[in-house]
Amino acid sequence: MTATSRRHALVVTGALLALLAAVSVSILVGPAGLTPHGVLLEMADRLPFVDVESGLSRRQQAILWDIRMPRTVLGVLVGAMLAVAGAAYQGVFRNPLADPYLLGVSSGAGLGATLAIVGGGAAGFAGVPLAAFAGGLLAVAATYTLGRTVGGVRSEVVIILAGVAVAASANAVQTFFMQLHDDTLRQVYSWMLGRLTTDGWSEVLVVLPYVIVSVAVIALHRRTLDVMAVGDIEAASLGIAPARVRLVLVCVATLGTAAVVSAGGLIGFVGIVVPHAVRLLAGPGHRLLLPLSLVTGAAFLVLADVLARTVMAPAELPIGVVTAAVGAPFFLFVLRRSREVS
Fold first, then answer.
1. How many domains does the chain contain in total?
2. Closest Cα to residue 75, out of 314, 264, 315, 209?
3. What span, in angstroms and rounded, lies between the C-alpha atoms of 227 and 239?
4. What pTM does this model have?
5. Are 293 and 240 in contact (CB under 8 A)?
6. Does residue 32 lie in a domain region?
7. What residue intervals traverse the membrane (predicted)?
8. What CATH number is given to the structural domain containing 318?
């Protein structure tokens, strides 16, 4: 085994251990008094042909299976999807600062959620995830339509600029409705700052299919992403259609992002921080970058959620505040490093 292979093996092992530790901390930390021994026995008791006594009370079992576990699994799905989508965006656009919200997903989702919340009553608030999902997809569709009209979707720069324009328009409309219905500002901002509150397993079951499909399609294009890193002309000479690949990857990454945003709100910086951190440790090759981003992104967001619900306990800090506190300094580090390299 070469030195590079050993280093990669250590990085992969470390990422998996970090995810295991993050999940364990997320399940155990809190006022319910759950113990590692009791949780392990309770999980073993749910296996087929296994019958053991965990020692957990009915209340503790309900907290474990209906609150802690769904929230932790949702954090894993959201963090993994945002990180993989960020790696995919950075690959197809060859832009180290690209993230899952690049094409207006966040602005469109925010507008959709705002319209659902100001729609009134419990029915409006219950429709927030669906409205956010639809708003994110419509924003990206508008971005691509505008990009095709202006530049024929031949340049990633045109698509990015179109995304900026669509995001600005969606933000303006959102601000207008927020001013008209200022009594809903607290609900709107609570959703926009991100949260992983769950109602049992329903959110997990809704998000899971989108995450699986999106991650699978992106993973199948890992070698193509490596080829596209050299440029569109070179990639085309090797038999790859850059515009088609870019459209496919942006669509599936956006689909997964819109799904997790609809469940968790606008959680920023994960798609920038995680792929860059992995790239610094394991190199730019997507064969390793994508799975490591998935595992590391999941661990990062689960730990951020633990901080969000414990720092100001019994109150809960928006998880977007925690990720921004970590992501903003890292963003500045990336800018400074890029300047030094150039």
1. 1
2. 264
3. 10
4. 0.89
5. no
6. no
7. 72-89, 101-119, 125-146, 158-180, 200-220, 247-276, 288-308, 315-335
8. 1.10.3470.10
